[in-house]
């Protein structure tokens, strides 16, 4: 069976991280989200993947190529303008036949769920029960069949939402062609499905086991935690650990990386290639450190994602944060992750200040940003790419890309 992965979108709610890459290429557990999905598809027996790409498609093409590294055939289709999910699927129609999977590129799925969907003979819509259904497309079900889809209703009739996982046959394109443009200015696959339902076509509703909402940057921390728990069934040490370093729990240490004496690491923790860790640092659980990183003396990292090429050399604290590629944090940089009143941390997304629904959350820092010594970054701060922050600065709120902060 073929699988179509919708990977053309930018993911604006993921700014500042998506200024320089599409959402599907954001790193969790040291792999792009999209790579985790492709690996699970291959395990489930999918032999061909059609990637519908658009925004910063060069990063996707360069990373995956023809798919040979993952023992899967990868084909590409360009969606020149991001006009919605139905339009994205329409652009791949010439490569599809019979039955095929369609999956949002930011989905975190497991092989077992994919296999169950593939075994069905009718068309399938994946659903998931969530606490906040009003933020999603809510699915109504009668006798195991989809009865309707309501997009972000004020009073959701159920807690079941559309998980962005489908199994279609060629018949779906008849309804895609009949899909009108939505109030958001897009052609949406949920509208196509509703037209099909109104025409008497049946879709089976299938519950998805593991599904993580990937709408906002802090959701990456939940995905990172879940994947580290799953992937690290035991430690895998391919690099060097000096005498005097303490390792508790499970870690993955890639080749040509070194953990120096006096470092204290509590897993699950994943460390990429060519990293220099320590001496005398403290890395706490559910932290991923990408390739070519340096975590130096007197540094504490907690429950964070540190992307490729970033340096945190000495005397700094990073908690519950996401740090982009090729950043450098000056000595004494501290990222606060807990409000004084203990309430949920809020952050600015677009022109809105919203709750992260997290009691502890630090900052999101875009690529190639540098801080001077003794910088303080407050909870929920969103810092763009190529930002320069002067020594001693106190930073909060939203900092736009290419800004100098004094």
UniProtKB/TrEMBL annotation:
Family annotation (Gene3D superfamilies): Hexapeptide repeat proteins, Spore Coat Polysaccharide Biosynthesis Protein SpsA, Chain A
Keywords associated with the record: Acyltransferase, Multifunctional enzyme, Nucleotidyltransferase, Transferase
UniProt catalytic activity: N-acetyl-alpha-D-glucosamine 1-phosphate + UTP + H(+) = UDP-N-acetyl-alpha-D-glucosamine + diphosphate; alpha-D-glucosamine 1-phosphate + acetyl-CoA = N-acetyl-alpha-D-glucosamine 1-phosphate + CoA + H(+)
Residues covered by the Mannose-1-phosphate guanyltransferase C-terminal domain: 265-346
Example GO biological process: UDP-N-acetylglucosamine biosynthetic process
SUPFAM superfamilies per UniProt: Nucleotide-diphospho-sugar transferases, Trimeric LpxA-like enzymes
Pfam families listed in its UniProt record: GMPPB_C, Hexapep, NTP_transferase
Keyword set includes DNA-binding: no
UniProt name for this protein: Bifunctional protein GlmU
